[in-house]
Amino acid sequence: AFTADVVPQAPEDPLFGLMAAYRKDTNEKKVDLGIGAYRDDNAKPWVLPVVKEADDLLRKDPDLNHEYLPIGGLVAFNQASQKLILGKDSAAIKDQRVVSLQTVSGTGAVHLGSAFIAKFYTPKTAEAKAIYISSPSWANHNQIIDNVHLPVKTYPYFSKETKGLDFDGMINGLESAPEGSVILLHACAHNPTGVDPTREQWTKIAEVMKQKKHFPFFDCAYQGFASGSLSTDAWAINHFVDQGFELMIAQSYAKNFGLYGERAGCFHFVAAPAGNAQDTVARVGSQLAILQRSEISNPPAYGARIASLILNDEKLFAQWEEDLRTMSGRIKSMRKALKSHLDQLGTPGKWDHIMEQIGMFSFTGLNEQQVGRLRSEFHVYMTKNGRISMAGLNRGNVEYFAKSMDEVVR
Ligand code: PLP
User: Fold this and answer.
1) Model ipTM?
2) I need a labelling partner for 1 at 20 to 30 A (CA). Which of 17, 69, 353, 402 fits?
3) The whole model's pTM is what?
4) Are residues 379 and 371 in contact, defined by beta-carbon separation less than 8 angstroms?
Protein backbone atom coordinates (compact mmCIF):
# COMPACT_ATOMS: atom_id res chain seq x y z
CA ALA A 1 0.00 0.00 0.00
CA PHE A 2 2.88 2.35 0.72
CA THR A 3 4.24 2.69 -2.79
CA ALA A 4 6.51 5.57 -3.75
CA ASP A 5 3.68 7.60 -5.25
CA VAL A 6 1.89 7.42 -1.89
CA VAL A 7 4.94 7.77 0.35
CA PRO A 8 7.72 9.46 -1.62
CA GLN A 9 11.26 9.48 -0.29
CA ALA A 10 11.64 12.60 1.86
CA PRO A 11 14.82 14.67 1.70
CA GLU A 12 17.22 14.37 4.60
CA ASP A 13 16.90 17.08 7.28
CA PRO A 14 19.39 19.65 5.99
CA LEU A 15 20.87 20.48 9.37
CA PHE A 16 21.22 16.95 10.66
CA GLY A 17 22.58 15.94 7.22
CA LEU A 18 25.20 18.65 7.53
CA MET A 19 26.21 17.32 10.95
CA ALA A 20 26.66 13.83 9.56
CA ALA A 21 28.80 15.11 6.65
CA TYR A 22 30.97 17.06 9.08
CA ARG A 23 31.53 14.00 11.25
CA LYS A 24 32.66 11.99 8.23
CA ASP A 25 35.16 14.62 7.07
CA THR A 26 38.66 13.54 8.17
CA ASN A 27 40.44 16.82 7.37
CA GLU A 28 41.93 18.21 10.57
CA LYS A 29 41.14 21.79 9.61
CA LYS A 30 37.39 21.15 9.41
CA VAL A 31 35.11 23.71 11.04
CA ASP A 32 31.52 23.07 12.14
CA LEU A 33 29.39 26.20 11.96
CA GLY A 34 26.14 24.34 11.33
CA ILE A 35 24.09 23.29 14.30
CA GLY A 36 23.07 25.90 16.87
CA ALA A 37 24.75 24.34 19.86
CA TYR A 38 27.29 26.06 22.08
CA ARG A 39 30.90 24.94 21.84
CA ASP A 40 33.79 25.97 24.08
CA ASP A 41 37.07 27.44 22.88
CA ASN A 42 38.23 23.90 22.01
CA ALA A 43 35.17 23.29 19.81
CA LYS A 44 33.82 20.85 22.41
CA PRO A 45 30.31 20.63 23.86
CA TRP A 46 30.20 22.45 27.19
CA VAL A 47 28.42 21.08 30.24
CA LEU A 48 27.61 24.22 32.22
CA PRO A 49 29.37 24.01 35.63
CA VAL A 50 26.05 24.79 37.31
CA VAL A 51 24.36 21.94 35.44
CA LYS A 52 27.13 19.59 36.51
CA GLU A 53 26.59 20.66 40.11
CA ALA A 54 22.81 20.22 39.92
CA ASP A 55 23.27 16.85 38.25
CA ASP A 56 25.59 15.70 41.06
CA LEU A 57 23.06 16.85 43.68
CA LEU A 58 20.23 15.02 41.92
CA ARG A 59 22.16 11.78 41.67
CA LYS A 60 22.88 11.88 45.41
CA ASP A 61 19.19 12.25 46.24
CA PRO A 62 18.11 8.92 47.80
CA ASP A 63 14.47 9.65 46.94
CA LEU A 64 15.09 10.07 43.21
CA ASN A 65 12.95 7.65 41.21
CA HIS A 66 11.68 7.18 37.68
CA GLU A 67 7.97 7.65 38.24
CA TYR A 68 5.78 9.53 35.75
CA LEU A 69 5.52 13.28 36.09
CA PRO A 70 2.00 14.77 36.09
CA ILE A 71 0.52 15.47 32.61
CA GLY A 72 1.52 19.12 32.88
CA GLY A 73 5.01 18.24 34.09
CA LEU A 74 7.00 19.19 37.17
CA VAL A 75 5.05 21.87 39.05
CA ALA A 76 8.10 23.56 40.62
CA PHE A 77 9.69 23.74 37.16
CA ASN A 78 6.60 25.29 35.57
CA GLN A 79 6.28 27.89 38.30
CA ALA A 80 9.94 28.83 38.10
CA SER A 81 9.69 28.99 34.31
CA GLN A 82 6.81 31.46 34.55
CA LYS A 83 8.88 33.68 36.84
CA LEU A 84 11.91 33.44 34.61
CA ILE A 85 10.11 34.55 31.49
CA LEU A 86 7.53 36.95 32.96
CA GLY A 87 9.57 38.30 35.87
CA LYS A 88 9.40 37.55 39.60
CA ASP A 89 6.91 40.35 40.23
CA SER A 90 4.76 39.74 37.16
CA ALA A 91 1.21 41.02 37.53
CA ALA A 92 0.01 38.24 35.22
CA ILE A 93 1.38 35.58 37.60
CA LYS A 94 -0.05 37.38 40.67
CA ASP A 95 -3.46 37.61 38.99
CA GLN A 96 -3.26 33.89 38.14
CA ARG A 97 -3.64 34.62 34.46
CA VAL A 98 -0.94 32.17 33.33
CA VAL A 99 -1.19 28.46 32.68
CA SER A 100 1.98 26.51 31.95
CA LEU A 101 2.80 22.98 30.86
CA GLN A 102 6.22 21.39 30.68
CA THR A 103 6.93 20.32 27.10
CA VAL A 104 9.40 18.36 25.01
CA SER A 105 11.80 21.31 24.84
CA GLY A 106 11.03 24.34 22.66
CA THR A 107 9.96 22.25 19.68
CA GLY A 108 7.29 20.57 21.80
CA ALA A 109 6.11 23.94 23.09
CA VAL A 110 5.80 25.38 19.57
CA HIS A 111 3.90 22.24 18.61
CA LEU A 112 1.56 22.35 21.60
CA GLY A 113 0.71 25.99 20.90
CA SER A 114 0.17 25.28 17.22
CA ALA A 115 -2.02 22.26 17.99
CA PHE A 116 -4.06 24.39 20.39
CA ILE A 117 -4.56 27.07 17.71
CA ALA A 118 -5.55 24.44 15.14
CA LYS A 119 -8.15 22.95 17.46
CA PHE A 120 -9.63 25.99 19.16
CA TYR A 121 -8.81 29.27 17.45
CA THR A 122 -11.85 30.84 15.82
CA PRO A 123 -10.99 34.21 14.30
CA LYS A 124 -13.70 36.31 12.64
CA THR A 125 -12.67 35.25 9.18
CA ALA A 126 -11.43 31.81 8.18
CA GLU A 127 -8.43 33.32 6.35
CA ALA A 128 -7.07 34.60 9.68
CA LYS A 129 -6.70 31.03 10.85
CA ALA A 130 -3.06 30.67 9.87
CA ILE A 131 0.25 31.20 11.61
CA TYR A 132 2.49 33.94 10.28
CA ILE A 133 6.21 33.38 10.63
CA SER A 134 9.07 35.71 9.78
CA SER A 135 10.77 35.41 6.41
CA PRO A 136 13.11 33.69 7.00
CA SER A 137 12.49 31.75 10.20
CA TRP A 138 13.71 28.64 11.96
CA ALA A 139 13.07 26.03 9.26
CA ASN A 140 11.23 23.69 11.61
CA HIS A 141 8.46 26.25 12.17
CA ASN A 142 7.11 25.41 8.71
CA GLN A 143 6.88 21.69 9.39
CA ILE A 144 5.52 21.99 12.92
CA ILE A 145 2.70 24.26 11.78
CA ASP A 146 2.02 22.26 8.65
CA ASN A 147 1.80 19.08 10.76
CA VAL A 148 -1.23 20.46 12.58
CA HIS A 149 -2.80 21.39 9.21
CA LEU A 150 -2.59 25.12 9.61
CA PRO A 151 -1.52 27.33 6.71
CA VAL A 152 1.93 28.88 7.17
CA LYS A 153 2.15 32.48 5.98
CA THR A 154 5.08 34.85 6.22
CA TYR A 155 5.81 38.46 7.06
CA PRO A 156 8.94 40.23 5.77
CA TYR A 157 11.76 40.36 8.28
CA PHE A 158 15.28 40.43 6.89
CA SER A 159 16.70 43.03 4.55
CA LYS A 160 19.26 41.58 2.15
CA GLU A 161 20.60 45.07 1.49
CA THR A 162 21.29 46.16 5.06
CA LYS A 163 21.56 42.63 6.51
CA GLY A 164 19.43 44.06 9.30
CA LEU A 165 15.71 44.23 10.03
CA ASP A 166 13.34 45.11 7.19
CA PHE A 167 11.25 47.07 9.68
CA ASP A 168 8.95 48.80 7.18
CA GLY A 169 8.36 45.53 5.39
CA MET A 170 7.53 43.82 8.67
CA ILE A 171 5.09 46.53 9.72
CA ASN A 172 3.41 46.45 6.29
CA GLY A 173 3.17 42.68 6.50
CA LEU A 174 1.51 42.84 9.91
CA GLU A 175 -0.85 45.57 8.75
CA SER A 176 -1.94 43.67 5.68
CA ALA A 177 -2.50 40.33 7.47
CA PRO A 178 -6.21 39.63 8.10
CA GLU A 179 -7.41 40.92 11.47
CA GLY A 180 -6.84 38.46 14.30
CA SER A 181 -4.01 36.50 12.68
CA VAL A 182 -1.61 34.47 14.80
CA ILE A 183 1.87 36.00 14.58
CA LEU A 184 4.86 33.96 15.63
CA LEU A 185 7.65 36.19 16.93
CA HIS A 186 11.17 35.29 18.00
CA ALA A 187 11.55 36.74 21.51
CA CYS A 188 15.29 37.36 21.06
CA ALA A 189 18.33 36.19 19.08
CA HIS A 190 16.32 35.57 15.92
CA ASN A 191 17.15 32.30 14.19
CA PRO A 192 18.56 32.26 11.48
CA THR A 193 19.39 35.94 11.04
CA GLY A 194 20.67 37.12 14.43
CA VAL A 195 18.67 40.30 13.82
CA ASP A 196 16.32 41.55 16.56
CA PRO A 197 14.04 44.60 16.59
CA THR A 198 15.08 47.43 18.92
CA ARG A 199 12.82 48.27 21.89
CA GLU A 200 11.41 51.18 19.96
CA GLN A 201 10.61 48.88 17.05
CA TRP A 202 9.04 46.27 19.35
CA THR A 203 6.84 49.02 20.76
CA LYS A 204 5.61 49.88 17.27
CA ILE A 205 5.13 46.18 16.41
CA ALA A 206 2.96 45.81 19.53
CA GLU A 207 0.92 48.87 18.56
CA VAL A 208 0.20 47.54 15.09
CA MET A 209 -0.62 44.09 16.41
CA LYS A 210 -3.01 45.58 18.94
CA GLN A 211 -4.79 47.62 16.28
CA LYS A 212 -5.12 44.56 14.10
CA LYS A 213 -6.14 42.34 17.05
CA HIS A 214 -3.39 39.88 16.12
CA PHE A 215 -2.54 37.06 18.51
CA PRO A 216 1.16 36.90 19.51
CA PHE A 217 2.92 33.58 19.81
CA PHE A 218 6.46 34.08 21.14
CA ASP A 219 9.16 31.52 20.52
CA CYS A 220 11.90 32.02 23.11
CA ALA A 221 14.78 29.63 22.54
CA TYR A 222 17.69 31.85 23.61
CA GLN A 223 16.80 33.70 26.81
CA GLY A 224 20.03 34.86 28.46
CA PHE A 225 22.01 33.76 25.46
CA ALA A 226 21.56 36.85 23.34
CA SER A 227 22.60 39.68 25.62
CA GLY A 228 23.85 37.66 28.58
CA SER A 229 20.97 39.09 30.64
CA LEU A 230 17.84 37.02 31.24
CA SER A 231 15.58 40.03 31.74
CA THR A 232 16.90 41.97 28.74
CA ASP A 233 16.21 38.99 26.50
CA ALA A 234 12.64 38.69 27.83
CA TRP A 235 11.92 42.39 27.35
CA ALA A 236 9.80 42.07 24.21
CA ILE A 237 7.54 39.41 25.73
CA ASN A 238 7.00 41.47 28.84
CA HIS A 239 6.27 44.56 26.84
CA PHE A 240 3.44 42.69 25.10
CA VAL A 241 2.16 41.29 28.40
CA ASP A 242 2.18 44.82 29.88
CA GLN A 243 0.16 46.01 26.89
CA GLY A 244 -2.59 43.60 27.91
CA PHE A 245 -2.26 41.06 25.08
CA GLU A 246 -3.52 37.54 25.37
CA LEU A 247 -0.58 35.48 24.14
CA MET A 248 1.35 32.23 24.11
CA ILE A 249 5.03 31.53 24.80
CA ALA A 250 7.21 28.58 23.80
CA GLN A 251 10.25 28.43 26.08
CA SER A 252 13.27 26.25 25.49
CA TYR A 253 16.04 25.39 27.94
CA ALA A 254 18.16 23.63 25.32
CA LYS A 255 20.61 26.45 24.70
CA ASN A 256 20.63 28.48 27.90
CA PHE A 257 21.20 25.43 30.12
CA GLY A 258 23.02 23.39 27.48
CA LEU A 259 20.35 20.71 28.06
CA TYR A 260 19.86 20.02 24.34
CA GLY A 261 19.21 16.29 24.48
CA GLU A 262 17.28 16.36 27.74
CA ARG A 263 14.33 18.13 26.10
CA ALA A 264 13.37 20.57 28.84
CA GLY A 265 10.93 23.29 27.83
CA CYS A 266 7.74 24.98 28.83
CA PHE A 267 4.60 26.31 27.19
CA HIS A 268 2.73 29.28 28.67
CA PHE A 269 -0.67 30.70 27.88
CA VAL A 270 -1.21 34.20 29.30
CA ALA A 271 -4.80 35.45 29.41
CA ALA A 272 -5.61 39.13 28.92
CA PRO A 273 -6.27 41.06 32.16
CA ALA A 274 -9.80 41.99 31.12
CA GLY A 275 -12.72 39.59 31.52
CA ASN A 276 -12.65 36.48 33.61
CA ALA A 277 -9.02 35.61 33.07
CA GLN A 278 -8.83 32.91 35.74
CA ASP A 279 -11.73 31.09 34.16
CA THR A 280 -10.05 31.39 30.74
CA VAL A 281 -6.78 29.85 31.93
CA ALA A 282 -8.63 27.05 33.71
CA ARG A 283 -10.51 26.12 30.52
CA VAL A 284 -7.50 26.56 28.25
CA GLY A 285 -5.33 24.57 30.66
CA SER A 286 -7.81 21.70 30.74
CA GLN A 287 -7.73 21.42 26.94
CA LEU A 288 -3.95 21.72 26.75
CA ALA A 289 -3.77 18.83 29.21
CA ILE A 290 -5.86 16.67 26.88
CA LEU A 291 -3.64 17.53 23.90
CA GLN A 292 -0.56 16.73 25.94
CA ARG A 293 -1.97 13.46 27.28
CA SER A 294 -2.85 12.22 23.82
CA GLU A 295 0.52 13.05 22.33
CA ILE A 296 3.23 12.47 24.96
CA SER A 297 1.17 11.48 28.01
CA ASN A 298 3.61 13.34 30.26
CA PRO A 299 6.95 15.06 29.67
CA PRO A 300 10.48 13.72 30.31
CA ALA A 301 11.66 14.29 33.86
CA TYR A 302 15.43 14.50 34.14
CA GLY A 303 16.24 17.75 32.33
CA ALA A 304 13.35 19.53 33.99
CA ARG A 305 14.59 18.35 37.40
CA ILE A 306 18.03 19.81 36.71
CA ALA A 307 16.59 23.11 35.47
CA SER A 308 14.13 23.27 38.35
CA LEU A 309 16.85 22.75 40.94
CA ILE A 310 18.84 25.65 39.49
CA LEU A 311 15.89 27.97 38.92
CA ASN A 312 14.63 27.49 42.47
CA ASP A 313 17.93 27.93 44.32
CA GLU A 314 19.40 31.42 44.70
CA LYS A 315 23.01 30.32 44.76
CA LEU A 316 22.72 27.99 41.78
CA PHE A 317 20.73 30.62 39.90
CA ALA A 318 23.51 33.18 40.38
CA GLN A 319 26.05 30.66 39.14
CA TRP A 320 23.86 29.99 36.10
CA GLU A 321 23.83 33.69 35.26
CA GLU A 322 27.62 33.59 35.41
CA ASP A 323 27.67 30.62 33.01
CA LEU A 324 25.33 32.47 30.65
CA ARG A 325 27.69 35.41 30.60
CA THR A 326 30.55 33.04 29.82
CA MET A 327 28.71 31.69 26.76
CA SER A 328 27.34 34.98 25.44
CA GLY A 329 30.66 36.71 26.16
CA ARG A 330 32.67 34.14 24.21
CA ILE A 331 30.28 34.43 21.28
CA LYS A 332 30.56 38.21 21.28
CA SER A 333 34.35 37.97 21.35
CA MET A 334 34.21 35.69 18.30
CA ARG A 335 32.10 38.27 16.43
CA LYS A 336 34.79 40.82 17.17
CA ALA A 337 37.61 38.50 16.16
CA LEU A 338 35.96 37.51 12.87
CA LYS A 339 35.23 41.12 11.96
CA SER A 340 38.75 42.26 12.75
CA HIS A 341 40.33 39.43 10.73
CA LEU A 342 38.13 40.37 7.75
CA ASP A 343 39.14 44.01 8.19
CA GLN A 344 42.82 43.06 8.26
CA LEU A 345 42.45 40.94 5.14
CA GLY A 346 40.61 43.76 3.41
CA THR A 347 37.89 41.30 2.45
CA PRO A 348 35.60 42.91 -0.14
CA GLY A 349 32.14 43.83 1.18
CA LYS A 350 30.73 45.33 4.35
CA TRP A 351 30.85 43.14 7.43
CA ASP A 352 29.50 45.37 10.18
CA HIS A 353 26.43 43.16 10.45
CA ILE A 354 28.58 40.45 12.03
CA MET A 355 29.01 42.75 15.02
CA GLU A 356 25.46 44.06 14.97
CA GLN A 357 23.70 40.69 14.84
CA ILE A 358 23.10 38.97 18.15
CA GLY A 359 22.93 35.54 19.74
CA MET A 360 23.98 32.16 18.42
CA PHE A 361 23.85 32.99 14.71
CA SER A 362 25.09 35.36 12.08
CA PHE A 363 23.51 35.64 8.67
CA THR A 364 26.70 36.35 6.76
CA GLY A 365 25.24 37.14 3.36
CA LEU A 366 27.40 34.44 1.74
CA ASN A 367 25.51 32.89 -1.16
CA GLU A 368 24.88 29.22 -1.84
CA GLN A 369 27.77 28.91 -4.23
CA GLN A 370 30.19 30.47 -1.74
CA VAL A 371 28.86 28.21 0.99
CA GLY A 372 29.43 25.24 -1.33
CA ARG A 373 33.04 26.26 -1.97
CA LEU A 374 33.67 26.76 1.74
CA ARG A 375 32.59 23.20 2.29
CA SER A 376 34.33 21.50 -0.64
CA GLU A 377 37.60 23.47 -0.63
CA PHE A 378 37.96 24.54 2.99
CA HIS A 379 36.05 21.91 5.01
CA VAL A 380 33.85 24.60 6.58
CA TYR A 381 30.28 23.42 7.24
CA MET A 382 27.37 25.86 7.40
CA THR A 383 23.78 25.98 6.16
CA LYS A 384 23.14 26.90 2.53
CA ASN A 385 21.46 30.17 3.47
CA GLY A 386 24.80 31.55 4.69
CA ARG A 387 24.02 31.21 8.38
CA ILE A 388 26.92 30.48 10.71
CA SER A 389 26.70 29.33 14.28
CA MET A 390 29.06 31.76 16.00
CA ALA A 391 29.64 29.21 18.77
CA GLY A 392 31.50 27.01 16.29
CA LEU A 393 34.26 29.62 16.08
CA ASN A 394 37.12 29.72 18.57
CA ARG A 395 40.58 31.20 18.93
CA GLY A 396 41.99 28.21 17.08
CA ASN A 397 39.88 28.45 13.92
CA VAL A 398 38.52 31.99 13.53
CA GLU A 399 41.47 33.21 11.48
CA TYR A 400 41.31 30.14 9.22
CA PHE A 401 37.59 30.74 8.73
CA ALA A 402 38.12 34.44 7.95
CA LYS A 403 40.80 33.56 5.36
CA SER A 404 38.54 30.93 3.80
CA MET A 405 35.70 33.44 3.65
CA ASP A 406 38.02 35.99 2.14
CA GLU A 407 38.97 33.60 -0.65
CA VAL A 408 35.42 32.67 -1.61
CA VAL A 409 34.10 36.26 -1.74
CA ARG A 410 36.98 37.55 -3.92
N1 PLP B 1 12.77 27.83 18.23
C2 PLP B 1 13.86 28.32 17.66
C3 PLP B 1 13.80 29.65 17.00
C4 PLP B 1 15.05 27.60 17.68
O5 PLP B 1 16.14 28.11 17.12
C6 PLP B 1 15.08 26.34 18.32
C7 PLP B 1 16.29 25.53 18.29
O8 PLP B 1 17.14 25.62 17.45
C9 PLP B 1 13.90 25.88 18.92
C10 PLP B 1 12.77 26.66 18.85
C11 PLP B 1 13.72 24.59 19.64
O12 PLP B 1 14.76 23.94 20.14
P13 PLP B 1 14.57 22.76 21.16
O14 PLP B 1 13.41 21.94 20.73
O15 PLP B 1 15.86 22.02 21.07
O16 PLP B 1 14.34 23.38 22.48
Assistant:
1) 0.99
2) 17
3) 0.96
4) no
